[in-house]
């Protein structure tokens, strides 16, 4: 599977998570909408499904990792940044085959595209701290 298709899957997952956070609509309905609106040849559909359904399924676990590392309640974090952080932590915890630097870079890029002016810096800083905790061996091996 190409990196480009994985990137597109992450991008769609971020957008779908944003919609879910705003509307609270049913995950299946949002997922079906995104699948219907996007050419499945252009993104990794299985990875999109895993990310989009995995974040809400593991929400407490993800937020418990994030909360001690952020400067406010998770519910007060900008919606795009919150979705990017949750997506990043989910990948760090549940996709060890994806290098931590790739996870962080992808989340930062998504925050640059969709988030507030300097939101990507916040996402970078928080995910860097999470990676040092949950991927300590991998992080240490790269320094």
The average pLDDT score comes to 94
Question: What class, by secondary structure content?
Answer: mainly alpha
Could you tell me how far the N terminus lies from the C terminus, measured between alpha carbons in angstroms? 28 Å
In CATH terms, the superfamily is NusB-like
Here the CATH topology equals N-utilizing Substance Protein B Homolog, Chain A
Shape: globular
CATH class: Mainly Alpha
Q: What oligomeric state is this? A: single chain
Tell me the β content.
under 5%
User: How many E-type strands?
Assistant: 0
In CATH, the architecture is Orthogonal Bundle
Strand count, sense and barrel status of the largest sheet are: none
Query: How many domains make up the 3D coordinates?
Result: 1
Rg, alpha carbons: 14 Å
Order of helices and strands: HHHHHHHH
Question: Total number of helical segments?
Answer: 8
Task: Describe what is shown at a glance.
By secondary structure, the chain is mainly alpha-helical. It is 75% helix and 0% strand.
What does this structure look like?
The structure is a single chain. The model has no long low-confidence stretch (mean pLDDT 94). It is built from 8 helices and no strands. It has one domain (3-142): Orthogonal Bundle (N-utilizing Substance Protein B Homolog, Chain A), CATH 1.10.940. Helix 1 (3-23) packs across helix 5, helix 5 packs antiparallel against helix 6 (100-114) and helix 6 (100-114) packs antiparallel against helix 7. By secondary structure, it is mostly helical.
């Amino acid at each position: 599977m190409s990196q480009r298709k994985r990137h597109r899957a992450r991008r769609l997952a971020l957008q779908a998570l944003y919609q879910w956070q705003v509307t609270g609509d049913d995950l299946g309905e949002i997922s079906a909408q995104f699948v219907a609106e996007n050419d499945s040849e252009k993104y990794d559909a299985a990875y999109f499904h895993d990310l989009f359904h995995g974040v809400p399924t593991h929400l407490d676990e993800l937020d418990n990792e994030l909360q001690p590392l952020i400067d406010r309640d998770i519910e007060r974090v900008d919606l795009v940044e919150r979705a990017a952080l949750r997506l990043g932590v989910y990948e760090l915890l549940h996709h060890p085959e994806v290098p931590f630097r790739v996870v962080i870079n992808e989340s930062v890029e998504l925050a640059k595209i969709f988030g507030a002016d300097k939101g990507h810096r916040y996402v970078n800083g928080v995910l860097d701290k999470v990676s040092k905790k949950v991927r300590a061996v991998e992080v240490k091996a790269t320094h």
